[in-house]
Amino acid sequence: MITLNTTAPVAHAGLLGLGVFRPERIVTNDEICQKIDSNDEWIQERSGIIERRHADAHETVVTMATAAALAALADAGISPEQLDMVMIATVTHRYQTPSAAVEVAAAIGAVNAAAIDSSAACAGFCYGLGIADGMIRSGVAKYILLIGAEKLSEIVNFEDRGTAFLFADGAGAVIIGETKVQGIGPTIWGADGTQLDAIIMEPDVFTAEKTGNPSVLTMQGQQVFRWAVGQMGDACTQAMTAAGVSVADLAAFVPHQANNRITDALVKQLNLPDHVAIARDIQYSGNTSAASVPLALARLRENGEIKSGDLVLMVGFGAGLVHAAQVALVP
Ligand code: UT7
Fold first, then answer.
1. Cα gap 318→228, rounded to integer Å
2. Which residue owns the Cα nearest ligand 1 atom 45?
3. Strands (E), the chain
4. What pLDDT is recorded for position 269?
5. Whose CA is nearest to atom 43 of ligand 1?
6. pTM above 0.85, yes or no
7. Which of 266, 259, 255 minimizes the C-alpha distance to 312?
8. CA torsion sign, 12 to 125 to 261 to 31?
9. What residues are paired with 188 via a beta bridge?
10. What separation in angstroms does the CA of 33 have from each of 28, 159, 165, 217?
11. Mean pLDDT of 147-165
12. Cβ(279)–Cβ(330) below 8 Å
């Protein structure tokens, strides 16, 4: 019988660097309400969003991901040539193929890296972290660049008052590599394809004409809200149990920035102590799908609410429906 060599595993993986890109253009609730029957008060009360950022025409998934990637590389002190993999979590890249990841790899000079996009919507970043953790510990890769990047303003119908105010643009990136102690807890993840209609992006010629992106997004907001509040607390608890930590060990809770009321419900269910900082980046960034968790993590670190080595609990959830949760040490 032939036996094959395998890569040599390493003991521990963790986050080595973090970087983000936020588009310059701030879009207020009043501006959104020019096209829908709504108002600033309703949007703030029902979602928590005060303003969001929309990318300009020259800012694409690729340019935003590239900027976040360069910031993460600098934060980690890693050169692009050292990367073995560039993985982008996105649902808004213009082409089915080639991937955004191949363009970003070329743009940053990651000449030794494999490159792939993954589609797990708003859970994409946490899914990617679970995959990268396994790849590093198995020895398949030494350094991985994981980016969540979205230009949702291209696929939102700004006349749909169920989604127009919610979704926005941005990118967040991390470098994952070998660490002295384990810095990423086991990922608790799952998928429920029976609810595929809850949030769906479908081909749409009108959007293609307006924005150049061939898809439009529709969402059954209440259905997603109920599912998230009903299931994500349990996923978070499982992620802490699997890692052998409790809420007392947490410095911050960084859920997908879907709706402040979902975050409030999860904070209550998890009985988080007062010392745990709660990510509320949705107030200024809106819901940026796969970019929301790294953007929210970065804001907490920028504000000094968390520091390197602190433990955070993250959970992503969205179209699929899919979800992924894990704890991790802040880079
Ligand atoms: O990122 C992927 C995952 N996505 C999510 O997790 C999103 C989850 N869902 C949500 O965040 C919420 O469902 C929304 C923020 C999208 C909507 O909030 P809601 O509280 O679920 O609103 P609703 O659809 O239940 O509507 C409540 C009321 C309705 O009026 P009546 O029937 O009570 O008189 C709607 O017609 O609010 C009305 N409404 C609005 N009013 C002003 C719905 N949209 C708007 C609006 N402005 N934009």
1. 8
2. 161
3. 13-21, 26-28, 51-53, 85-89, 114-118, 143-151, 169-178, 188-191, 199-203, 215-219, 252-255, 277-278, 311-318, 322-329
4. 98
5. 162
6. yes
7. 255
8. positive
9. 325
10. 9, 9, 8, 19
11. 96
12. no
